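Researcher: Hi, I'm a grad student and pretty new to this. My advisor asked me to get structures for two proteins we've been looking at. I'm not sure of the right format, so I'll just paste the first sequence and hope you can take it from there.
Model: That works fine. Here's the first sequence with its structure tokens right after it:
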Amino acid sequence: MKIKRQFLQCSGFALGFALTAGFAQTQAQHENEVTYNREAARVINENCVVCHREGGIGPMAFESYEQVRPWAPLIQLKVANREMPPYAYDHGIGIQNLQGDWRLSADEIDTLVSWVDQGALLGDPDIELPPPDLRDLDEWNFADRLGQPDLVVPSIPIDIPAAGNDIWHKHIVPSGLTTDRCIRAVQVKPKGNAATVVHHANSSMQTLNEDGNLERMTEGMLTEYAMGKWGEIMPEDVCRVLPAGALVSWDIHMFPGGIGATAPGTVIEDNVVELGLWLHPQGFEETAAFQQDLKSYEIGIPRREREYNLVIPPHGEIMTQGFHSFDHPIRIDSFQPHGHLRMVAASLEIYHPDTGALEPVSQISNWSATWHHSHIFDPDVAPLVPAGAVLVFKQWYDNTAANPNNPDPDQWVSGGNRTTDEMTHAWVAITHLDDEGYQRLMAEREQAAARDLAVAGQE
């Protein structure tokens, strides 16, 4: 009996220990559980719903758990592969501090991946989620930060058919500006469904000379819009001048039927593309430290010869290179590579001839023509380039069946303006410096780095 009582006591102790351990394990599992209501919805609402909403450009809506749940495995795949949100820019290579960066953080990716791995659970139904911030679909991208544009210059209305060949429309409209001003930010916005049929929309400035004839300004580029582009914002120390009485020259390329998953494939009447300009107060041009311009930099092949010299064979791949240098120091404010359906990657580097070093600036290894981005560097890390250093541009093209954007790998592809042709250039915003300005900016960065190091040492 004594042995039996001891056995029962030990068994009871073991059972109690097991129950306690099981409870602790269950509690730990519950604490590590990722649910929609507690974690996943925040990431989705802050990063996905801007496009994935009723009437948005995303092909499905993600405004509620019921809408999101069927797509959970696809969300996990796209997020884990960094295909969504659609901002192709390599991690760990070159400058990572960007304005308008849509990429998810590693923690946000882990949250969504874990949520799906655990069954994409709703979680506590009593948790009340704040509704996603669904701004007006036609709202300007900089409205939250800068308010409404100071100046909106629309194109003339253009009808776009449901099918057919590429269409180009060039025309000039007045800006309505009566005094010289400095541009603070710029965005081009096709209205409504036109966003999927406008391949690009270049806007530049022209003026009337003393003879009353149109004259294109040497530094007159306003912006190059291509599908998906967020816009451009200038550093606070520069002026990109918009002169009084300037005329806006539109060069709009449209692709009937559209490109991408949400292409309407229908006639779009009275298509209008709008240019929104945010301006510095009058007189800012007198205090701005530097001048900035935006230009297209050809990569290896002069524009006048591009139609004949850029050739990609069927089922072939090529890479182009371009080199550009300046006789004065510069700052690179933004970088936007450009190509069409066969382009798949791009990079920007700086070659320093005095040391032989090749400095990486940007690399995009999964480029797509359906999403163009002007990668805008934070002003405190934007590359400062000494006189004589060389900007090295590279772009890669894939005319094989492995390229999901390739409409026909059996075709020869040459340089040209059609969507099915190819291009090889990059749009770069550059602030032009003198030696004094370059040295001042370098000294300011060195002082900032020293302060950061001192603060880190105190922590």
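Researcher: Oh nice, that was easy. Here's the second one.
Model: And its structure:
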Amino acid sequence: MGQAAVVIGAGITGTLVAHTLAQQGWRVVVLEAEHVGAGSSSRTAAGIRQQFSTPETVLGMRYSVDVYRNFPERVGGAEVPIVQNGYLFLLGTAEEKEAAQARVRLQHRCGLVEAELLEGRALTDRFPWVEGHAVLAATWCPSDGFLHPATVYNEAALAAQRLGVELIQRARVIGVERSGARIDAVVSTRGRHPADLVIDATNAWSPRLARVLGGVELPIAALKRCLWFAERAGSLSEAELLAMPLTVAPSGAYMRPENGNSLLMGWSRPIEAEPEFSYDDQDRVPPEYFHKTGTDSIAYETWAALAEVVPAVGEFAGITATTAGYYGTTPDHNPYLGYDPQVPNLIRLAGFSGHGAMFGPFTALVAGQLAAAGRDVPTVPALGHDVPVATFQLGRDPVVPESQVI
């Protein structure tokens, strides 16, 4: 039998990591305080893009897209969980256009050759519902899109269990047994779990878990984020809505189809962190974000911001629902993927800043390399590239902050 690994958290990250470790021969136990997908994984807009501004992230997300595109063969299940409608970043100023041109050049160097800058007729011919007078240009990548997150974590959990992983739900971690700095066993409300390796896959819950495990309390802030759903009406057809890419306005407001009659909308707005939130707090909607509060709520501000660049959205029948969840956000909006400096057999995979779903396969790849090496590694092999991981590791040097938008 292989060595024992305890994975804490059964969202997209935890289930994919458990599957990867089981493939490597580890004896894996997954501990989930509630149920599979109970945290942010089930409350995400689930965008997945490769249009980032650092080579590490572009390469990592190219790997994630490849895994999601081939998910039944790579992981399991019958359904491909990625909808490749693309990502369309709309740009409003010459400065934004200049920065976008530089990003596209970088993305091409990283093999993302399908990313392109569109302007003028090239933009409005491709996307006739875009208001050309309100937008200067756009970047477009057709292989980006969004995910069905429940498919990911449910199928990954089942695939892991087929490989012998023990998944224990309603198992809140309450302590550890240790020899010196190392953890020998994790203690949950469901028993004692021997551990040669422990994986923290709890994201927004990571700082409080660190207190139990004895690890560094990373600067990960739990920030409430809301999503709204608008009912289709007016000139935009069902087929046009279903084919719409995940579209980001110059303001940062974004939207994508939920189905042929419902548009998902979001906007990351400044909000106070909630360090001691409860499980039920995930679904609590602040009054200023709730669509039933009134037309001066952020829900309607978001709808109006999107209608400025896509006028057909302004014809929709109204906002039908508001949902909420947490981003586990870091100061530079990059995640932590590495060993804890205080606990030598603890790997931290947390702080995804709204990008945890898209990072999932790449995170699992990194976790497998870290577990095999027993230490932090400088690169991981992905799609023929040696992808640097120092950008994502604890104690990293200052790096270029990645975009806060979805």
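Researcher: Is there anything I should tell my advisor about the second?
Model: You could mention this: The longest helix spans residues 356-373.
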